[in-house]
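Reagents: none. Just compute today. 3-sulfolactaldehyde dehydrogenase.
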Amino acid sequence: MTTKVKSYKMLIGGEWREGLHSFDVINPQNSEVLATVPLATKEEMIEAIETADRTFRMRDPIPTHERIRILSKVSDYMEKDHEVFASIIAREGSKTITEARSEVSRAIQTIRISAEEARRLKGETINFDQNPGSENRVGYYQRFPVGVVGAITPFNDPLNLVAHKIGPAIAAGNAIVVKPASATPLSALKLAEAFVEAGLPDGYLSVVTGSGKEVGDTLITHPTIKMVSFTGGSVAGQAITRKAGTKKISMELGSNSPVIVLNDADLSKAVHACCSGAFSAAGQNCIGVQRIFVGRELYPAFIDRLVEATVALKVGDKMDERTDVGPMINEKEAARVAEWVEEALVKGAQIETGGVRDGAYYSPTILTEVPSDAKVMAEEIFGPVVIVNPVVDLEEAIEKSNAVNYGLHAGIFTNDINQAFKAIRKMDVGGIMINDSSDYRIDEMPFGGTKGSGIGREGVRFSIESMTEQKVVCFHLDD
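Predicted 3D structure written out:
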């Protein structure tokens, strides 16, 4: 079936606008052109930023009750168009229609939580009389919006990760300019439509589509932008920190997530969670399972069961509800994954199953006997490949888990609470899931990592806090 090509407009300061030039949005499954989208210029990005700044400075702040009303209407709009959102996500990206529906549900929850947290944005009183001589002083601190937030989002969760930027920004009273991934801009534009329909005043939201090199750098470096919120790769994140200057920065930069499976683990539970965590979204998931360290006694049975579960996965048409794994975001990325796997094989790794590329598809792949100097062991592969290596004990598993410059999420399977708490203490990660894989998250929890996995924490309340500044108020009273 051929999908009709639709021309989209971008949102700049409340105005839907075409560009002088455009680019195609491609379905990675079959290279079909789904839509054309404006290719914004540097001048158009500057206009979006300066409009947001004028709006923030010159308008009265949006009252809390109005922010709640707008965000609630957005979530209602998304609920009504649930299947439309899901179809957009599945067609422009890598997710199957089933995975896309799940993402829409999560994004709705993200916006609803944002509405709830707007109500709870509070300060705190300060006991100034704790200092001698300050007995006649009373006061508090209050949170105020930072101003204009610049947000850059990736392709792998094209709706929910945009919701995680816009929802908290509006809940906190900020204006925000979003630059979505060029591969998957349609989900962000559809979400912007929901905010316009919900009555968000013009100027508070712009979604500018185009080249990261052309408009992304402008968004990062413009002096009016008071905070940069970025989700993406480590190399891009490091470049942003160098360019941004003295701005607030929040970054989630991916991972190489480990899962430890000890000899006393529930084998069926561990296999099911690790298989799902490794291969959902074709492995293009920042908290997806990439390295599994299994106790030697359990290792043979674990490998057999994991291979059996992996072979049973259905790879194919994203829009087929029976499909488990769709294509990667493009053929170039699939070829890169194939190169990384080949490099590991040259260094002595073994393929237990998978290792086949067909265009943008890469078959779910299990590697064993992977040496520590293989790229796939040290870096984030961001594809449907998982490593399974045996370990003698928990200490070895923790040492190997920590031996990378990432620390986003980890998992451990064990029925020994003492072993679980040892892992909690010693694993250098932002989140550790007990008797679950690394691939578990709810949108309210603080989400972020250590080392090269980022700066700060997302999760709605924590994003709102980072998008505000604390202002101290102190009254010096007369006797």
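Residues 315 and 325 are 5 Å apart (CA to CA).
Action item: order primers for follow-up constructs.
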